[in-house]
Every structure is written in structure tokens, then in C-alpha cells.
Design goal:
The protein has 367 residues and is an alpha+beta fold. The protein has 11 helices and 12 strands.
């Protein structure tokens, strides 16, 4: 037999639920209806949000964090301007021109905070969006810590470039003790025009670039220009390795060391560079080490000589003082040492001293 008192109690509870729904479910609460990010490589990344509430939504903030090597986790915050309303559908474009662009293969995390006039606040969980160059159908090949992407050329083309990358890593480790600390991505574009089309502010002579903080390289290599491509691969990969191991918030490497190591990892100095170096020696037109510590000249002839001298300077240090000293020099720079301070600590001479020793060496042992 059903207990009448119990039945009556159940009926009263049901009536309360029907008459006072707010007791079991809040009505019109602040709700995120949708959130997304749409890449338009290489120009912009558009973030979208939909939200509603039974009162006006009054504040919307977008926060994002780019995935890259750094000294702190930097979060950017964007205040979204809009007229308060109870339903919002907003888009906000991150214009790559304003931030210098992001390379293909990069990614970022983003999330929203939304508040309404009642003081309710909702924060979305972080979501990751990849900023990829989807204009091409990429293939991929991975060996060790290097993953290579390419879209023109057969498998043997990619395998040959991958072999070059692995040989460059081995040569660099032998010369300096430096190794990849984090995985590297290498994007092979079919030519320099395609590569430049993937960049926001390319130079007309750009054929390869290392985005060192992202662990990403991009090079324009036509299958018919494989020999140049191999040297470019070794060069840019060296920049990536060296910057990974020396990154610090206080100082960059002197340009002659950075470029000299990259040039040496390519292999023997090419004839055009040797010719400029030999002529500068003969005509007493060598550039000082002090000057080579700054960015190289935009003039072609001076730039070629700067690269040639940088190769020769690094070759001088490794040949005469060995791998151990070069590794010590790089580790000293990692601590944020000054140019002169690092050389004096490791070798016992400053940049002027290096300049004098190297000039004596190069005039008796030309390249």
C-alpha cells in the first residue's frame, strides 16, 4: 500500500519545482556559445566569440600566448571594444604586420574572459591554434629531432636534404660541442619566391631564414638547385642550434661568431668568398673584428667579405684552440657575457687581441 503522507510530500515537491524553477536551474546565466580562431596565413589570425546573458555583457578580454622560447611566459591581453548588449558575436583579427609575423609551423594558446552587468564572469579553457601555411600540400620526414616538410620534389630529394641536416649537426657537434636542445622543423619551399610569400617583411634576396625562438627554419630550394640547398640547410640549422644554446636576456652573439659557425658548418669556403678574402688581404682591406660584431653591411661586396672573414675567424679559433674552448665560449655567452669579457675569460684576449692574432695567422696561412 502506498503511504499517503509520502505521496503528498512528493506532490508538493513537484509543484515547487514547476512554480519556482530558479531553485534548480539559474535562468539567463552568462554563457559562452562558441569560440574559435581562423588562420589566414601569413597575414592574420582572426579570433571569434559568441556569448549571451539575460543582462548586458559589459567586458570581453582576449588573452593569447605565442609558443616560443623565451625568458618568461608572456601573455598578451586585448580589450575588445563593443556596445554592451546581452548577446555578442565578435571577431578580432591579429594583424601580423603589427607583430612582424609568425612562421609556418608556429602555434599559440588563447582564451577569453567575459563579464556581465550582474558581475558574473566566465573564462574559457585555453585552446591551441596552429598557424600553418596551408597553401601547399606538405609531405614530412622525421629523423632524430629534425622534421622536414616539403611539397615539391620526390622522396629522394627530401632524404638527401635530411642527410645533409644530420651531417651538419654531427659536424657542428664535432667543432663546437653544440647540439639541438629542442626539436627543429625545416620547411622547404620550392623557390625563394614561395618562401618570401610566406613572410611579412621579406628582403628580395632572402633565400633562407631561421626563426630561432620557434625552432623553425624555412628555405627556398628548387630540386634543380640542390647543391645550394644543402649549404643553406646546414647554415640555417647551425643558427638554430647555436641560438638555442646561447639564448639569454642580456646579450646576443657577435655577428662574426654566429655567421662564422654557420659558414663553417656548410663545408669548405666557396671560391667566391675565398676570392674576396684573398683580395682584402692583398690590399690591406680587411674589416676589423669590432666592426664584424655588428650586423653586416647591406652592400653586397662588403657583406661577402664579412661572411668570408667570419668563416676564417671561427676556423682560426677552432683550428688553434680546439672544440673545448669553443664550447666554453658559447656557454660563456649563454651567461650573458660581453663580447670582450667572453673572449678574455676563455682565450685570454679581447676582440682587438683576436683581430691581431687572426691577421697574423691569415697572412701566413691564407684561405
Amino acid at each position: 500500500m502506498i503511504n499517503k503522507a509520502r505521496l503528498l510530500a512528493l506532490a508538493v515537491c513537484l509543484l515547487l519545482v514547476l512554480l519556482v524553477p530558479s531553485l534548480v536551474q539559474a535562468q539567463g546565466e552568462l554563457t559562452i556559445l562558441g569560440s574559435s580562431a581562423q588562420p589566414e596565413f601569413p597575414h592574420r589570425l582572426t579570433f571569434s566569440l559568441s556569448a549571451e546573458s539575460d543582462v548586458n555583457i559589459t567586458d570581453i578580454r582576449l588573452r593569447y600566448r605565442v609558443d616560443r622560447i623565451g625568458f618568461a611566459r608572456v601573455t598578451s591581453e586585448v580589450y575588445i571594444g563593443f556596445a554592451p548588449t546581452n548577446t555578442v558575436n565578435i571577431d578580432w583579427p591579429l594583424d601580423m604586420v603589427k607583430i612582424g609575423g609568425l612562421p609556418t609551423g608556429s602555434s599559440l594558446d588563447y582564451w577569453w574572459t567575459v563579464e556581465d552587468a550582474r558581475g558574473d564572469r566566465v573564462e574559457t579553457a585555453p585552446a591551441r591554434v596552429n598557424f600553418d601555411d596551408t597553401r601547399y600540400s606538405w609531405q614530412s620526414l622525421t629523423e632524430g629531432k629534425v622534421t622536414m616538410y616539403w611539397y615539391q620534389g620526390d622522396q629522394s630529394f627530401a632524404q638527401e636534404l635530411m642527410a645533409t641536416a644530420q651531417q651538419a649537426l654531427a659536424r657542428l657537434a664535432q667543432d663546437t660541442g653544440a647540439e639541438l636542445e629542442k626539436p627543429a622543423k625545416l620547411y622547404i619551399y620550392a623557390n625563394s619566391q614561395d618562401l618570401q610569400g610566406a613572410m611579412i617583411h621579406p628582403q628580395e634576396w632572402t633565400g633562407g631564414v631561421a626563426f630561432t625562438r620557434y625552432g623553425i627554419m624555412a628555405i627556398g630550394i628548387a630540386p634543380a638547385n640542390l647543391d645550394w640547398g644543402k649549404r643553406a640547410t646546414a647554415h640555417e640549422l647551425t643558427h638554430l642550434v647555436i641560438h638555442q644554446m646561447t639564448l639569454n636576456p642580456y646579450n646576443d652573439l657577435p655577428t662574426w661568431l654566429d655567421e662564422g659557425l654557420a659558414m663553417r658548418t656548410e663545408g669548405p669556403l666557396e671560391a667566391v668568398f675565398s676570392a674576396y678574402l684573398d683580395r682584402a688581404i692583398a690590399e690591406n682591406g680587411l674589416i676589423s673584428v669590432q666592426s664584424l660584431s655588428s650586423p653586416f653591411s647591406a652592400y653586397a661586396e662588403e657583406s661577402v667579405l664579412a661572411y668570408a672573414q667570419s668563416y676564417s675567424l671561427v676556423d682560426f679559433l677552432i683550428t688553434n684552440y680546439g672544440q673545448g674552448k669553443m664550447l666554453e665560449l658559447l656557454n660563456t655567452f649563454r651567461q650573458g657575457s660581453s663580447y670582450d669579457g667572453a673572449l678574455e675569460k676563455v682565450y685570454g684576449f679581447d676582440m682587438d687581441g683576436l683581430d691581431n692574432l687572426w691577421r697574423d695567422y691569415i697572412t701566413t696561412s691564407p684561405s
